[in-house]
Design brief:
The protein is α+β, with helices and mostly antiparallel strands. It has a single domain (12-166), classed as RNA-binding S4 domain (Structural Genomics Hypothetical 15.5 Kd Protein In mrcA-pckA Intergenic Region, Chain A, Roll), CATH 3.10.290.10. It has helices spanning 12-27, 31-43, 49-58, 61-67, 74-82, 116-119, 121-126, 158-166, and strands at residues 86-88, 91-92, 105-108, 134-137, 142-145. It has a five-stranded antiparallel sheet, covered by helices on one side. Strand 4 and strand 5 form a beta hairpin. The longest helix has 16 residues, at 12-27.
């Protein structure tokens, strides 16, 4: 009755749920968004479902802005995109969940480069290395998708997430 309570080991379902929640939080996705991404990935022929899910999430505009180092978090990246501070192929895109295609270029709008949040960005980017599937021009403050995301380090087990949605 008194003292430390015993914790039960999580059930198989509990472990899957925990990993799914960890994924949702780390990418800032709502449940409906994640389940839609997983459903599309499961319909895709030929690729492993887990790889397809990660590829879809990593190609999202807000995530690419974060991975390029233009924002310190995915939430800030989403906010900056909604406020119209970025171009994709010289067109203003205000949809954080826009899915970038290989070869598309992301750049900061010239007027926005003077804002406080972007002021010292070139110095911060000198110490930063973008993932190998992205290219980053640290002088022009632009980058983009070179190839589909592969070998992304994840803070969760994607296979447990796939198992959760397979039921």
């Amino acid at each position: 009755m008194h003292g430390a309570k015993r914790r039960r080991a999580p059930t198989e379902f509990g472990g899957q749920l925990m990993e799914k929640q960890r994924m949702r939080v780390s990418y800032g996705l709502r449940e409906a968004q994640l389940s839609e991404i997983v459903a599309k990935a499961m319909k895709k022929k030929g690729a492993a479902v887990g790889d397809s899910i990660i590829e879809r999430i990593e190609r999202q505009f807000a995530n690419v802005v974060f991975r390029l180092g233009f924002a310190s978090s995915r939430t800030i990246a989403r906010q900056l995109i909604l406020h119209g501070h970025f171009f994709v192929n010289k067109k203003k895109i205000r949809a954080p969940f826009y899915s970038l295609k290989v070869g598309e270029t992301v750049s900061i709008i010239p007027n926005s480069k003077e804002l406080l949040i972007f002021k010292d960005l070139s110095n911060k980017l000198k110490k930063y290395d973008a993932p190998e599937w992205l290219f980053l021009d640290k002088e022009k403050l632009e980058g983009g998708l070179l190839a589909l995301p592969k070998g992304v380090e994840l803070p969760f087990d994607i296979n447990l997430v796939v198992d959760y949605y397979s039921k």
